[in-house]
Amino acid sequence: MTLSNVSTWELDRAHALHPWTNFGPFEAKGSMVIERGEGCLLWDAEGRQYFDAVGGMWCTNIGLGRQEMADAIAAQALKLGFSNSFVDNTNDPSARLAGKLASLAPGDLNRVHFTTGGSTAVDTAARMVAFYQTCMGRPDKVQLVAREASYHGSTYLSQSIGKRNGDRVPQFRYKEDGIHHLSAPYLYRAPEGMDEAAFCDHLVAEFEALIDRVGAGNIGGFFAEPIQASGGVIVPPKDYLHRMWQVCRRHDILFIADEVVTAFGRIGHWFASLEEFEVQPDIITCAKGLTSGYIPLGAMIFSDRIWAAMAEDGSRWFTSGFTYSGHPVACAAALKNIEIIEREDLLGNAMRVGALFEERMHALEALPLVGEVRGRKLMICVENVADKATKRLLPDELDVGTRIADACEAMGLIVRPLGHLNVMSPPLTLTASDVELVGDTLETAIRQVTDALIREKVRLG
After folding, report:
1. pLDDT per residue over 248-276, tens digit each?
2. Distance (Å, rounded) from C-alpha 403 to C-alpha 412?
3. CATH top-level class for 68-344?
4. CA 94 to chain centre
5. Sorting pLDDT into bands at 50, 70 and 90, what band is 428?
6. Phi, psi of 94 (to 5 degrees)
7. How many other CB atoms sit within 10 Å of the CB of residue 31?
8. What residues pair up with 256 in beta bridges, in sequence order?
């Protein structure tokens, strides 16, 4: 049999190791083969059409199948398909993109280091914490703080900084020394009796207590997603991030905002930290919406103050980077992506239609299986529970999130299951009619799964 006679499904099942492969189900069922996409729509190899409410994976912000994006990528590939950016080399798209990002980023975040994606941006930011603090004469101030239920990437270092449920498996090893994790700002599951203000006080006090215990002279950086995305779209309590930033400022701890998901319009801003949460980070990491997923690219954007400290004596080397840092084709794609977002006012659309999306999704809270709907604009999570009053979860083996996602898929809608959660992050081009399609289909799916659970005599309520 020649390779051309073997189906994509068979080749994939026989040879591919996917990110987060679940070996048993994969070996039994293989993969859904996606063949093409246009706007918010996908078609599989059998010709079935789906509305992609996941936006690829938080990333297809301008939608798929953009001819002008394909043209920009092709033109740059013909003109200059690759040029390394090591030491003192650059190229036009890389330089222009760095300048554009500096103009969009808040405050004095005027310096840019390009990476291959979000994981490598976070990995580089962690290394920069140590480099900067050592340059400042504080070589012990290199330990890091993050939160539970956080996701910061999948390199050894970035996955060690993150701590999302289900990501830590016994077959892998993780860096544990010098990395500390605070409680997630998960208001829906705050300790009993704590209102929002009290929970915020509790979380800030926990950070202060950690600093007292470890020593401010040993902690160099705090990593925080403005909204914890893959951890369950956890929106922090009011003033929480601002107060945590103030703690960092008092103790000379760098505040690293991981905006891999929230940047480039996901909740209606180029960057969410300052506009939405009144935080001026020292470093922002980003990827995903930077190119809307057309070409892999990440960036670490950092302050003039950090640059000045690192460059002060003129003799140091920043020995971190990647073959594809500043890749000209990727940077050309990002420039075209930003141009499209600006020209079509997709940030404004994310605000306007995102408000409708929030309203429609919150209506699902009337369903008996839905404990909470949370998120901002085009970043929404539905948390499914067995009992709304006690917030008791269904048994893990029932895999309620996947059941709902499967029911949606059968009706032509793709939502992302994460345990007992269902997550959505549709393109910024979402329309009001799309909102109704997603809402009505998801509601029907939840009702179908609820009825099935009742037939199975699962205890609800």
Report:
1. 999 999 999 999 999 999 999 999 999 99
2. 14
3. alpha beta
4. 23
5. very high
6. -65, -45
7. 13
8. 223, 283
What is the total residue count of the chain? 461
Give the residue carrying structure tokens 């929106």: 235
Q: Which two tokens stand for residue 120?
A: 């490598």
Distance from C-alpha of 441 to C-alpha of 448, rounded to nearest angstrom: 11
Chain position carrying tokens 């679940």: 22
Which DSSP string corresponds to 288-319? GGGTTTSS--EEEEE-HHHHHHHHTTS-----
Please report the beta strands in 153-307, taking only residues with DSSP state E, as ranges in sequence order.
179-182, 219-224, 254-258, 283-286, 298-302
Environment class of 147 (CB within 10 Å of its CB; exposed 0-12, middle 13-18, buried 19+): buried
Which regions of the chain carry the CATH code 3.40.640.10? 68-344
> How far apart are the C-alpha atoms of 283 and 273, rounded to whole Å?
11
CA dihedral of residues 276, 279, 282, 286 (deg, nearest 10): -20
Rounded mean pLDDT of 398-417? 98
Q: Give the integer Cα–Cα distance in Å for 225 and 216.
A: 22
Q: What is the pLDDT of residues 339-351, one digit of tens each?
A: 999 999 999 999 9
Q: DSSP secondary-structure letter at 170?
A: T
Q: What is the pLDDT of residue 165?
A: 86
Q: How far, in Å, CA of 267 to CA of 380, rounded?
A: 10
Fold adopted by 32-65+346-456 = Aspartate Aminotransferase, domain 1 (3.90.1150)
Which two structure tokens, joined as six digits, stand for 374? 């949370």
Rg of the chain's alpha carbons, rounded to an integer? Answer: 22
Question: What is the pLDDT, as a whole number, of residue 321?
Answer: 97
Specify the domain boundaries for CATH 3.90.1150.10 within the chain.
Answer: 32-65+346-456
Looking at this protein, which amino acid is placed at residue 288?
K
Residue with the two structure tokens 């898929």 = 409
